[in-house]
Amino acid sequence: MHAASNQINVGGALAPRVIPIRPAADAGDDAKQYVSMYQKQADIYPRAVKGWFAAWRWAFVGLTQLLFYGLPWVQWGGRQAVLFDLEAQRFYILGLVLYPQDLIFLAALLVLSALALFFVTAVAGRLWCGYTCPQTVYTEIFMWVERKTEGDRIARMRLDQAPWSANKLMRKGAKQAAWLAIGLYTGFSFVGYFTPIRELGAAVVALDVSAWNTFWILFYGAATYGNAGYLREQICKYMCPYARFQSALIDKDSLVITYDTARGDPRGSRSRKASPAAQGLGDCIDCTLCVQVCPAGIDIRDGLQNECIGCAACIDVCNGVMDKMGYAKGLIRYATENGVVHGWSRLQMFKRALRPRVLVYGGLLLAASIGFTASVALRSPFTFDVLRDRGALGRVVDDGAVENVYRIQVMNRTESRHTYRITARGIEGLTVLAPQVVADAASTAALVVSLQVPPAQAQSFPGQSIPVTFELTMLGPADGSGAWAPAVQREKSTFFVPR
After folding, report:
1. By C-alpha distance, which of 433, 448, 426 is closest to 492?
2. Among residues 327, 313, 255, which one has the least CA distance to residue 285?
3. In angstroms, how far is CA 79 from the centroid of its own chain?
4. How far from 423 is each of 139, 408, 409, 429, CA to CA, in Å?
5. Which residues have C-beta within 8 Å of that of residue 47, sequence separation ≥ 6?
6. Each residue's pLDDT tens digit in the chain (499 positions)?
């Protein structure tokens, strides 16, 4: 039965079931097209565009790259302001020092980022992709270099089709050199977040870079070079998961890039003086400039597609065409699906922004942000651990008192040298034999602490483990400089009384 289910009856005989991989020769134009996933993707030559949204896009390119390239060079209290020192297992973020035990903050930050992405997508689609995503930002930079060295769209297409010559070699070589330089400096800056960038820069100049740093500079540089120079829209189409699940985050009231079909169709070319109504045409002159400027190579007039990154290049170029034709702008615009269908004004569409989906995302984002901020602000400046001496649970000393020995490990989370005092409570007459401990800035210190219980109290608990609580108080900077409110941490342990 199972074998027969994969066969069909042909002339009384069983034949294998065949799934066609391409349409029949006599199929009409409407037949489904079967495209091999292994065929070479057609090259996309985006055309340069100017306009309101292009200016905003370049503003975000400048802002993000100023932060990325500039932040490692900023100093804070004699050290790098942002440094993830994996070797020392310390993360420095301005005045905050984080340890591996603080990875919960990283997890919380990732949750906040996800909620923020959900919220922005529900309100206004893929704004992140269009303006601040690293793939978009570096692709924009690399395309700018490409235009400066090879020319705009038509010039690049002609150059690629032309045979090799001195001019083509020079232009292609200049582009590749600039791309490599940007990629390598990007890799250098990336590694500068994990190795002090001033030391790394000196090592690069002296050609004395460690093998591990060299690998990551080259790896991240090659990734930037390949992703922004060659893969470009392929990353967004096939590798980025965001394009796949965005449809679950947006709805008909999300603000996305839309083409006004009712106003634009039927499409057709015409002179500037001709009346489109008299010719039975819409406002779209079918110039295809919206397709030519699209970095993903899609036609927004076919509706919203998962390849659209929301860069609004099509809006800028279409508005320019509408100006030249003397038509109203906004044939392609940021709008909601419901807004376009019902002809709503911008205010009417904005009123629909406060809908349940957005309120839920916004509420979760607000609550998570408050919780994250409070947890960071209330984070203790130190922690300590209590470990019992494994050699002896308890012993009787010369005067008959019972003694337990503990090892205390203090972690100073601040960037100042501090003094700490240890106390304990839980048993009447409990005595603490321990000196004050000093921990250097952003380091750990250990001390041995002895707890003793007088004989009279010890005789009341033979063979028992009694709960005790250690209290560690941060007294302030060890050099006595500055005012400091004492901070206290508590840890529980047990005191064992032998029989």
Report:
1. 426
2. 327
3. 25
4. 60, 12, 14, 13
5. 152, 153, 289, 292, 293, 317
6. 444 444 444 455 544 444 333 343 444 444 455 656 566 778 899 999 999 999 999 999 999 999 999 999 999 888 899 999 988 888 998 888 888 888 888 889 999 999 999 999 999 988 999 999 999 999 999 999 999 999 999 999 999 999 999 999 999 999 999 999 999 999 999 999 999 999 999 999 999 999 999 999 999 999 999 999 999 989 988 888 887 788 788 889 999 999 999 999 999 999 998 888 889 999 999 999 999 999 999 999 998 888 899 999 999 999 999 999 999 999 999 999 999 988 888 888 888 888 898 999 999 999 999 999 999 888 888 889 998 887 777 888 878 899 999 999 998 888 888 889 999 998 888 989 888 888 888 888 988 899 999 888 888 888 888 999 999 998 877 555 555 667 899 999 989 888 7
The answer to whether residues 289 and 315 touch, using CB atoms and an 8 Å cutoff, is no
Tokens describing residue 338: 């419901």
Question: What amino acid occupies position 96?
Answer: L
Between CA 264 and CA 260 the distance in angstroms is 6
Residue keyed to tokens 């993830």? 84
Angle at 170 between CA 166 and CA 172, to 5 degrees: 115
